[in-house]
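Batch manifest, entry 17 of 40.
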Amino acid sequence: MNRLIHFAFDQLYTNLAWAYDLVADAVSFGEWKAWGRAAIPFLTREGRLLEIAHGPGHLHLTLRQQGFEVIGLDLSPQMARRLRRRILQATGQAPAHARASALRLPFADGSFACAVSTFPAAFIFAPETLREVRRVLHPGGRFVVVPTARLKGNDALTALVKFAYRVTGQGRSSVDSIRRRFESAGYTFAQHTVQTARAEVVVWVCAAPG
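Output type: structure tokens
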């Protein structure tokens, strides 16, 4: 079952990337983009920002429009094309982005003041990812992650979507185990909650050593 779920997610992010927004809007009741924007108040505006696993580029575009100097990174060529198309259409300029793995970031030490990743896959917990992000951050730089959102409401449709989240393992890990992973990699860890109309969005703010 888990193997099938991982395969489905992988296809949605690659060969079926054209359907990603449709599925994301359906499971979030149209709030998907707002959930991603929950990270913005926690980001550092001074210095460059790295967006890890930028996906179709909605948050990336918002960050550019709000004046962030953002560089995107994603391993999926399909998502890279969607990002490029979206930014070019909206701004007339090509985005700054790299196709690479978060386990081996193609940037020099201390290149970024902040890094952000919204609804990433399990790679975000890999020791290699945590070390690499820490390496490319400034001393004291922030790594901001939006891992999940908890739907509010008790209507039948919301209950069905909540059940689907449980089946696919969304938000399964406890905050204590997450805290230990980040702290063992040298970060300080804090969890915040941002309210939207339909959900409570979880935001992790992890600071590299100063």
